[in-house]
TrEMBL record:
Protein name as it appears in the record: Diguanylate cyclase (GGDEF)-like protein/PAS domain S-box-containing protein
Source species, domain of life: Bacteria
Limits of the EAL domain: 583-837
SUPFAM superfamilies: EAL domain-like, Nucleotide cyclase, PYP-like sensor domain (PAS domain)
Residues in GGDEF domain copies: 441-574
SMART domains for the chain: EAL, GGDEF, PAC, PAS
InterPro entries, A to Z: Biofilm_reg_signaling (IPR052155), Diguanyl_cyclase/Pdiesterase (IPR012226), EAL_dom (IPR001633), EAL_sf (IPR035919), GGDEF_dom (IPR000160), Nucleotide_cyclase (IPR029787), PAC (IPR001610), PAS (IPR000014)
Segments forming domain PAS: 156-226
Length: 850
């Protein structure tokens, strides 16, 4: 019975199983070896040697192996070789294991061999080398060992027994009730016992109930139907140890001579390592796909012809569909172009099979949207070094490229108006100069400065100033042709380039259009504002042949336009440059005048028109340059306003005037109200209140003896802000006066909102009275309004007896002008005061106004 079972088992195994005696003659061969050699039957092989069945060289190698095993008594395990099937002519890889065959006394009487077809494993190994390192660890299937066969029943039993125990696969036989009849060492090891201990037991003794029941049901189906179960993957769990193993199991019926099923035979190959390897590969692929999904990159492959063969882009980060990519080369991708390199450079690079990084592409999709893509690729080679293509990653860099473009825009354009900035305009102008030089053409450069912008920016705030600049930028562009260029240099300075002007008349026409557009009113925070422009014009090549000269001369011409009263344009000329140089020298000297103590004050007295006494005094700044002599305030005050130096100068005037007033008191002069002018910049300076307080504290002068004079236009530009500043000054106890009153056309309702003490009638209304009826009417109205508001009214610029008499007759409080007193030095003012105190003035009675 056992012999019959072993023969059935041997003939149903795919491995080549054989045994040889000491002379190398086959004493056993299974059906697989018969088929391999092409012999008619197993009996036709018995008694033959390898020299009868194989080529001489192979036969000699097999014989040498047999003799080595028999001499050493040690097995030869896992020798791999390529064998040819004599029936089919096909060559396949096999792994051979040989062990010594011993008799009952332990004497070596031959060898037993088993040869397994490992072609698939070898092919997998070859493929693994070509694919990636992950597949290199795929576990090679272990080779089957040997079982004993004997020429006689006893020899055959020992042979088969040795063979079955040597095979790494689990080999077993069961009766019709699924009780073990035979089991090799592999089965026993898996169940934690010995082969002898398995005999008569079933799976319920070793496996969990449900699992054992499934095995039993399968085997009973085989017994009932006579049909085997081939290559089923099954999980076996030892219920004692919990050890889990996967097997590829084949179970076949054993039939007697009558064809009746008398037993079952089974072979189970442990595929746990293979299952783990497959699971590891699946997990690796899942991780790869997860990384691709989570990453901002996508994966691609190309063949040796540089055509795309694969693309892994789960979230369509590439903007391409698979159909748009597969089978195409990079240059054939729709709507795609290189950003920097040419296709020729790219072709030369890949022809040398070099890696490439960050190859940037622009892709315009069917929907019109533009994408920017970066590709990085590595060449791939097979194990023989043959080029197989490229594989790599792609990345959407659209956000980065747009950021780079935005950064470039910010670097070359003004952030507020989006006009070209100084750097960009310089580049454009240089290119235009080169073109004009090459084609013998002219071009014009305008340097534009907005008049009164600083006043609006200081009074209404920076937001209002920004709005004004943006509005002016838009107006400038509307005045120009498409070929003209306008840029902003900074602050309120703009620059314009006119390429190829026809003549000077055309240039002047454009300048006049700009002036007209600038003068149009604009609404800023509910207030109507107007600015004018001063334009300097320079023409290439007449006024300069390079960018620096053209810009400098246009700037010089612009300052000439300002000197001419603003709101006009001036063409550059050498005379203008000379005057500009004078202005520059004056500005440089002005910056050092305070340090050199070149400023001094003169004082002009005010007369009380009712008593004839000195009612007060106004401090007026003067500049004595050591080389240029006395410089008129009309020259340096506007320059100080533009440069901002007026704040420092005004602070010095305030402190000096207060100190002088206290000095006069100490000399015995009566208390006088000292008037000090405030410029626009000084009035809106954040340190003004502290400057006034410091001047009073340092000098010790009573606040009521100080009067700050501001112009009507200053308070009307931003009335609310002006009220806050005036209120703060008033809180110090200082008097407030509005200078040059009447030119701003303020109403009674407006004036009464301000905490002022004095109105000073502008000298332009005094100059022609009493002859001019309109001036008389305006002056009378101002005096009446002042008296209505209980304000002191002072007339400026009084130069004649008739003017003063008119003012006295119409109840004006005070007069100031050359008729009573010119501005004089502090020492002369002391003498003047003493002389006035000694005089007795008798005025005629005041008559009623006509």
């Amino acid at each position: 019975m056992e012999r019959f079972l072993l023969r059935t088992l041997g003939d149903n195994m795919l491995d080549l199983i054989y045994a040889k005696d000491e002379q190398g003659r086959f004493i056993y061969a299974n059906l697989a070896l018969v088929n391999m050699t092409g012999a008619e039957s197993a009996d036709s092989i018995l008694g033959k040697t390898d020299f009868d069945l194989n080529p001489p060289a192979a036969a000699q190698a097999y014989s040498d192996d047999d003799q080595l095993v028999m001499r050493s008594g040690q097995p030869l395990v896992g020798r791999e070789e390529l064998l040819t099937n004599f029936k089919t002519g096909e060559s396949r890889w096999h792994s051979t294991t040989k062990v010594p065959l011993r008799d009952d006394n332990g004497e070596i009487i031959g060898i037993i061999g088993i040869t397994r077809d490992i072609t698939q494993i070898k092919q997998a190994e070859f493929n693994a080398r070509d694919l990636n390192a992950e597949l290199e660890n795929r576990v090679a299937e272990r080779t089957a060992e040997l079982s004993a066969i004997s020429a006689t029943l006893e020899q055959e039993r020992n042979l088969m027994r040795t063979l079955v125990d040597a095979v790494p696969d689990s080999i077993f036989a069961k009766d019709l009730n699924s009780k073990f009849l035979l089991a090799n060492e592999a089965v026993a090891r898996g169940m934690g016992t010995t082969p002898e201990n398995l005999i008569g037991k079933d799976d319920f003794d070793f496996f969990p109930q449900e699992m054992a029941q499934n095995f039993f049901d399968d085997e009973q189906t085989i017994v009932r139907t006579g049909e085997g179960l081939v290559n089923r993957e099954e999980l076996a769990v030892n219920k004692e140890t919990g050890n889990m193993r996967w097997f590829l199991t084949t179970k076949l019926p054993v039939r007697n001579d009558k064809g009746e099923t008398v037993a079952l035979v089974g072979i189970g190959r442990d595929i746990t390592l293979r299952r783990r390897a497959e699971r590891a590969m699946r997990e690796s692929e899942e991780r790869f796909r997860s990384l691709i999904e989570l990453s901002s990159d996508w994966y691609w492959e190309q063949d040796a012809d540089l055509q795309f063969t694969d693309i892994e882009d789960p979230n369509n980060k590439s903007s391409y569909t698979r159909d748009e990519v597969l089978g195409k080369s990079l240059k054939e991708l729709p709507g795609t172009a290189l950003l920097s390199e040419s296709w020729i450079e790219y072709d030369d690079h890949v022809a040398e099979r070099k890696p490439f990084r960050d190859l940037e592409l622009r892709r315009v999709a069917d929907n019109g949207k533009t994408y920017f893509i970066s590709l990085t690729g590595l060449p791939a080679f097979d194990e023989d070094g043959n080029f197989r293509g490229y594989r790599g990653i792609g990345r959407d860099i659209s956000d980065r490229k747009r950021s780079e473009q935005h950064i470039h825009f910010l670097a070359t354009h003004d952030s507020l108006t989006s006009l070209p900035n100084r750097f960009m305009f310089s580049q454009i102008l240089n290119l235009a100069i080169e073109s004009a030089h090459r084609y013998h053409r002219k071009l014009a450069v305008f340097f534009i400065d907005l008049d009164r912008f600083k006043n609006i920016n200081d009074t209404l705030g920076h937001e209002a100033g920004d709005f004004l600049l943006c509005e002016m930028a838009a107006r400038l562009k509307q005045c120009l042709r498409a070929s003209d260029v306008v840029g902003r240099l900074g602050g309120d300075e703009f620059v314009v380039m006119l390429p190829e002007p026809e003549n000077a008349e055309q240039i002047a026409t454009v300048a006049q259009k700009i002036l007209s557009a600038s003068l149009e009113p604009m609404d800023i925070n509910g207030q109507e504002c107007r600015v004018t422009a001063s334009i300097g014009i320079c023409v290439y090549p007449d006024d300069g042949r390079d960018e620096q000269t053209l810009m400098k001369n246009a700037d010089i011409a612009m300052y000439r336009a300002k000197e001419e009263g603003k709101n006009n344009y001036q063409f550059y000329s050498p005379d203008i440059e000379a005057r500009s140089l004078e202005r520059l020298v004056l500005e440089n000297n002005l910056r050092m005048a305070l340090e050199r103590n070149e400023f001094f004050l003169h004082y002009q007295a005010k007369r009380n028109l009712q008593t004839g006494e000195i009612a007060g005094v106004e401090a007026l700044v003067r500049w004595q340059h050591p080389e240029l002599g006395i410089i008129s305030p009309a020259q340096f005050i506007p320059l100080a306003e533009e440069t901002g130096l007026i704040v420092l100068i005004g602070r010095w005037v305030l402190k000096t005037a207060c100190a002088q007033n206290v000095a006069w008191l100490k000399q015995g002069l009566p208390p006088l109200c000292m008037a000090v002018n405030l410029s626009v910049r000084q009035f809106f300076d954040e340190h003004l209140i502290q400057d006034v307080a410091d001047a009073l504290n340092e000098s010790g002068m009573q606040p009521a003896l100080l009067e700050m004079e501001i112009t009507e236009g200053m308070v009307m530009q931003d009335a609310e802000r002006a009220i806050r500043i005036l209120t703060a000054i008033k809180a110090l106890g200082v008097r407030l006066a509005i200078d040059d009153f009447g030119v701003g056309y303020s109403s009674l309702a407006q004036i009464k909102r301000f905490p002022i003490d004095t109105l000073k009638v502008d000298s332009s209304f005094i100059r022609d009275i009493p002859q001019n009826r309109e001036d008389r009417a305006i002056t009378e109205a101002i005096i009446a309004m002042g008296r209505t508001l209980s304000l002191t009214v002072i007339a400026e610029g009084v130069e004649t007896k008739e003017q003063e008499a008119f003012l006295r007759d119409h109840n004006c409080d005070q007069s100031q002008g050359y008729y009573f007193s010119k501005p004089i030095s502090p020492e002369d003012f002391v003498s003047f005061m003493k002389k006035q105190a000694a005089c007795t003035i008798v005025y005629p009675p005041v008559t009623s106004p006509e």
